[in-house]
Amino acid sequence: MARYDHIRQHLGDAPRAWLVTGAAGFIGSHLVEALLQLEQQVVGLDNLSTGSLDNLAQVEVTVGRRQWRRFRFLHGDICSLDSCREACTKVDVVLHHAALGSVPASLEDPLGAHASNVTGFLNMLVAAQAAGARRFVYASSSAAYGDDPAPLKSEAVVGQPLSPYAATKFVNELYAGTFARCYRLNAVGLRYFNIFGPRQDPAGAYAAVIPAWIRAMIRGEPVYINGDGETVRDFCYVADVVQANLLAATTDAPAALNQSYNVALNAGTTLNQLFELIRTGLEPRLPHLRGLRPQYREFRDGDIRRSQADIGKAASLLGYQPQWTVGRGLACTLDWFLRQPAKKSPDTGGGRMVSGPAGLKRPIGGGALHSKSAVER
Asked: Is 165 designated active site?
């Protein structure tokens, strides 16, 4: 991982100003944490409709007070162009992860998905270009492959979108390419596969099966598998997502810019294998899981039997090299979930403010709060 090590060293020597949208969400908070540990100046934008200030409170504890002072939080919404413009002021790099990141939610509310994922995305492109940002890195999705039947997904081939969410992500890539050609805003899209790790909401959009199963096992609830359990997915630990973002944000190779890349492990794991990894990881501390078996249900309509990423393009053009196996990532994830206190009700949703790290109990900066435009990735 020579290039990634070099980048981290270089960033420490020459700090930049970064904007992370969806900063209080799962992936966003990990990006904020990594950047602060590298002595960067970071602005976070979030409307807290799905993101949580608890996530940022954990970041503050991890990075310490000195590095935390480099972070500024804006409570605003990407559906507000004024909020986007304020957030982009004097920013060198935008890591855009604010979106409505849910296929079911997009099916229930396609207008809300469009508002967040298309209008909000366009607002961010306009604001970043006007502010003179040098790079725009954004979260795309493996959903962009739609009904492409190939078991190994390659960036050059996509199918027809299977949900409004998938359509919005495809439109994101079209808009990013258009802004590169018309306005010379260099953008890089990252097609995330099944991302998992600490701070992931059990009801979250990415690899929801992992946090959902962990929570069910901890609570002694049934664990359900759709189909026979031999469905294959490419699970990727969130630290490798951080790597991909930093590589995309700092590459100077012209051929690497204005491209979309798969971000995954390039390793298939069946749902049956995943179940056993989680169960055996929890069993030493939760003896009631000994002998636990999943309950199988019918396949869901539209489910793809095998989805695995070809990461050759990201490896060759960005220098991306995943460092975390599923087992190693799960060990860290399970440890985090077991340390969390039980909560009677969720901390997020509806725009309700929750207590958080110093300086975050009161929103800084304005921005209308749109209940339908979720910001967690």
From this structure: yes
The one catalytic residue among 4, 138, 145, 165: 165
* DSSP code at position 306: B
Radius of gyration of the chain (CA): 20
CATH of 2-193+238-264+310-323, one of 2.30.30.110, 3.40.50.720, 3.20.20.10, 3.40.50.1100: 3.40.50.720
pLDDT per residue as tens, the chain (377 positions):
588 988 998 888 889 999 999 999 999 999 999 999 999 999 999 999 889 999 999 999 999 999 999 999 999 999 999 999 999 999 999 999 999 888 888 898 999 999 999 999 999 999 999 999 999 999 999 988 988 888 899 999 988 998 999 999 999 999 999 999 999 999 999 999 999 999 998 875 444 899 999 999 999 999 999 999 999 999 999 999 999 999 999 999 999 999 999 999 999 999 999 999 999 999 999 999 999 999 999 987 656 788 899 999 999 999 999 999 999 999 999 999 999 887 654 433 333 223 333 344 433 333 322 222 222 33
| Neighbour-count burial of 66, counting CB atoms closer than 10 A to its CB (0-12 exposed, 13-18 middle, 19+ buried) | exposed
Give the domain ranges of the chain: 2-193+238-264+310-323
Query: Is residue 350 left, alpha or beta, with left meaning phi > 0 and alpha meaning psi from -120 to 50?
Result: left
pTM assigned to the model:
0.89
Q: Please say whether the beta carbons of 102 and 154 come within 8 A.
A: no
